[in-house]
Design brief:
Helix content is about 40%, strand content about 20%. The chain is built from nine helices and eight strands. A six-stranded mixed β-sheet has the order 3-4-5-6-8-7, with helices on both faces.
């Protein structure tokens, strides 16, 4: 990203990440795919170097862990994750308010558009693949990352679905953003890596060159092959 541009003093760059696809690009790399989130790793740094937490730092770490674990229901949630959060809650965090602010604060415009997206969900491979293509004329209405996550979560909840795929045409570019979410049987990090992206076993993404229709065909064909259907 822009970290090297901003690093005008040429100080060593530290890369802290929990994505298995991380390519160890920095001067110092700490990559732990078993961690629930990068924020959980940052918490470990606080403890290791005996840096005192305060309400602001506890809030930031809590939000990072909560969102990256799907409110603590993804398979990356561990006993250590819960112990970490238990300590963070000692810093006067209003967890109900935090949840509402992040997940129950949807503008009516987004909610109505979500309904439009839901009506365009399609399936393949006897319902094992659930997918949605967002045309470029819709992209400006779907700028919210939260809306993208929301629709993927809903798609993954469909009975029989093993993988949910969201295709989003990138405005002004001959590229498509593809986001994958799986129920765990299929390693979508490997699928995303095949298309030049990466992420986690159950959540990943890639940006693929080509038209929406072409990318959609290629990705679904690859998924069918891996699902052996």
């Amino acid at each position: 990203g822009q970290v090297y541009t901003l690093n005008d003093r040429q100080k060593p760059v530290l890369n802290i990440d929990h994505h298995i696809s991380n390519d160890n690009f920095a001067d110092v790399n700490w990559v732990d795919p078993k961690a629930s989130s990068t924020c959980e790793m940052v918490y470990r740094l606080f403890k290791q170097f005996k840096v005192p937490l305060n309400r602001d730092s506890a809030l930031c770490i809590y939000v990072g862990i909560m969102t990256d674990t799907g409110s603590f229901h993804y398979s990356n949630t561990t006993a250590f994750t819960h112990r970490t959060v238990a300590e963070l809650m000692n810093y006067n965090l209003n967890i109900s308010q935090i949840y509402r602010q992040i997940y129950e604060n949807v503008p009516i415009r987004d909610m109505l558009f979500l309904g439009r997206l839901i009506s365009n969900i399609r399936t393949a491979a006897q319902g094992k693949i659930v997918w949605l293509a967002i045309k470029d004329v819709w992209v400006s209405q779907c700028a919210s990352y939260d809306l993208t996550e929301r629709i993927l979560t809903l798609m993954r909840q469909i009975r029989g679905a093993e993988v949910a795929v969201l295709f989003k045409a990138l405005a002004g570019k001959k590229e498509v953003r593809v986001n994958f979410r799986s129920q765990g049987k299929l390693d979508v990090n490997k699928v995303a890596s095949f298309f030049g992206g990466g992420g986690h076993h159950s959540a990943s993404g890639a940006t693929v060159k080509g038209s929406l229709t072409m990318v959609q065909r290629k990705v679904i064909a690859e998924l069918k092959s891996r699902l052996k259907v």
